[in-house]
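HUMAN: Please help interpret these tokens:
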Amino acid sequence: MRVLVVEDFEILARSIGTGLRREGMAVDVVLDGTTALERLAATRYDVVLLDRDLPGVHGDEICRRLAHSRCVTRVLMLTASGTIEDRVDGLGLGADDYLPKPFAFTELVARVRALARRATPPLPPTLACGDITLDPARRAVFRAGRRLELSPREFALLECLLAVPGLVVSAEELLERVWDEAADPFSSAVKHTVHRLRAKLGDPPVIETVREGGYRIGPS
């Protein structure tokens, strides 16, 4: 899941970014509306957490542009004002959800995940391939009934592969979906993470490396 946090209060923005990364999401953080539009033009995000009162380009204008572009990115509007009128205004601009500050982080995570499910083709509540089962809501992975301890990156990578069983996912796409803007596109981060994931999944191997293609899980 790729998330863009647009919030001009830097401490809050960085805190949200850190918390969402711990939940296994790839998160970019910007502090003004102008930079937000530049990122949105260059990267496909599943969810945007959007403060309304932003320097540069106002959050309302960003929301309008996203709505008019008919893109699949979902908008969760954040604001210090929680009146009914403000909520109605935000939703009328094209926001998909509205969360007044202060908020509980657990609720923020739940709303982000709910919006992400609407940004992509619907997936079943649990993903499975053979004796491997992944439960996104519980952040749990099992093989043959045994729970595996995966890092957030390993979990997110496995989730990407299980979402399209039998199809090849390129290293470039995995880098975009699982890592954030700080990732070096020329690094071997994907390769090393796949190696660690294979070791934790055990035998028989289930993740196939497709020469000059990427990675695949399940029969082709």
